[in-house]
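The methods section describes the discrete structure representation at length, but only in general terms. The central task, working out the structure tokens from the amino acid sequence alone, is never made concrete. Nothing conveys this as quickly as seeing an actual entry. For illustration, here is how one protein appears when written out as sequence plus structure tokens:
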Amino acid sequence: MALESTAGLQNITTGKYYFLKGRFKASSSNLYGLFLIIFNPEKAMESYHAAVSTYSNIFDLEPHIEWQTFEEKITEIRWKGNCNMNMTSAVVSLFESLNGNFTARDEIYGMVSTYNYSHLDVAVTDVINRVIRDKGIVLETGIQEALPEEVVAAREEHLKKQKGKDKPAPAESVLHGFHVEEGSAIVPASMVLSPVKGKLLYDLKIGDLIMLRFNHKTDLGQFYINLYKLKTPEGKYKPIPGEVIDIKSEAKNLPVNILARIDNQLFAVASEEDRHVRVYLYDPKTDSALRIPSTGSRNARTVRDNRSSDSGKKDRSPATFLLLGFAAFLIMVLLLIIYILL
């Protein structure tokens, strides 16, 4: 992710890598985050990582641990989807902008390379707060340096450990062959069935709004159930609408796999073996509109049926009625003139 250009930097190199590790918490917005910025010997930002979550336990990670462990933890949090995707992407975008602003980047690098924690924490807090916007944000940083050969050795050792481990089972989305944009999360789910009024599974089309239930037996499912408040006081799990964006099946005797969009960066995968079941469709007339907390925005959005939005497009605007009325008036005047002349 680092830019190749080194304009504005001094033409000398330090011969060292510097690792800026940090954690922060914003109590009023209930957000917690980790970040890692790696400066290469040319003083440029070689890479930058971040994870922002509503889970407070990520703040337990000390920024003074080894950079490899810190990097692995951030990657793990993002891989599991235990983070606010939009907030995370926004922080990463901030670091990307910082990397392109050579003056600001050099200032941060100078604080890191001299271990100037007092000025560094203030500067980084200002950067992070452009997204978090919390006056009570608490931030703590840690700095580590290493020679290039030490960094290479550490990364090679990490690769060896990864190859030595048993290969984990791929995520359900990978098993079903679905791919979504980077930074998005895919939650395992099941389709809500309706034997009488539902739509036949093999008749489902792209764009249909169906009802799904997140799999509460998975950590990722539990996280989004809590986030969207889908568990009732009685312990029952409420369904959530999703727009069908992909349908796959490798053969007629194999399950049908559905990929549905829940939110901008949240998707659900559901699988059904019986092609003749009827799937419950979201109906705004009978199902109350569901308020979904948009990740990365303070405003919630309301899920509505596609048919409602389509019908909205067909509604006449006030300007249209005005034009129609004016046209009718002209026709009446024209008929009156013709009558008088005759």
